[in-house]
Amino acid sequence: MQRLCGIDEAGRGPLAGAVYAAAVILDPERPIAGLADSKKLSEAKRDALAVEIKSHAWAWGIASVSAQEIDQINILQASLLAMQRAYQHMIDQFGRHATLIQVDGNRCPIFSVPCEAIVKGDSKVAEISAASILAKTARDASLLVLDRQYPHYGFAQHKGYPTALHLARLAQYGITPAHRRSYAPVKKYLVADCE
């Protein structure tokens, strides 16, 4: 019997925080209504669906790659690594493997089972949509933790993305340990600190 695992990541573009990925194998006996690309859902709908996915899916896993790791290996490699970690976490947590993996995007990480990359997969494949929702909600939750650690930066509002508010706070307060130092808007403050 084929077991399709969908994998997606969240948080490639932000200037701070980890990149997250999730892996999901849905249970055909327990369908979930309303799955879609996480970016097209409201925060409340994503949060509700994340709870449903975790309780109804046959197996799921979530993993991250830190800002420090992103700076060491670059965001593309970090995204692929997060996907591998999410799949492994799913296996560790449930003891269940896929027979086929489909990932959102145009590149596949290396897995022990066949993998297909599907552009806009998060709006085409239910398993990838579910993974997209788990990755996004996990990442957003991690940014709320950063917001409590660094209340002056507004992480709860901008979630680490390079908004006008975030850039203004960077200019005002400098960088935190959670910032991705290899990203140009952050890197310029490192150069300023050295001069």
From TrEMBL:
Record-given protein name: Ribonuclease HII
Gene3D superfamilies tied to this protein: Ribonuclease H-like superfamily/Ribonuclease H (3.30.420.10)
Keywords, ordered alphabetically: Cytoplasm, Endonuclease, Hydrolase, Manganese, Metal-binding, Nuclease
Keyword Hydrolase annotated: yes
The protein's role, per its UniProt record: Endonuclease that specifically degrades the RNA of RNA-DNA hybrids.
Gene it is expressed from: rnhB
Compartments where found: Cytoplasm
One GO location term (cellular component): cytoplasm
Keyword Hydrolase among record annotations: yes
Organism annotation: Methylophilus medardicus
GO biological process, one term: DNA replication, removal of RNA primer
Molecular function, one GO term: manganese ion binding
Similarity comment: family membership: Belongs to the RNase HII family.
Superkingdom per UniProt: Bacteria
Binding positions for a divalent metal cation per the UniProt entry: 8-9, 104
E.C. designation(s): 3.1.26.4
Enzyme class at the top of the EC tree: hydrolase
Pfam families from the UniProt entry: RNase_HII (PF01351)
Cofactors named for this entry: Mn(2+); Mg(2+)
Binding note for cofactor: Manganese or magnesium. Binds 1 divalent metal ion per monomer in the absence of substrate. May bind a second metal ion after substrate binding.
Primary site of residence: cytoplasm
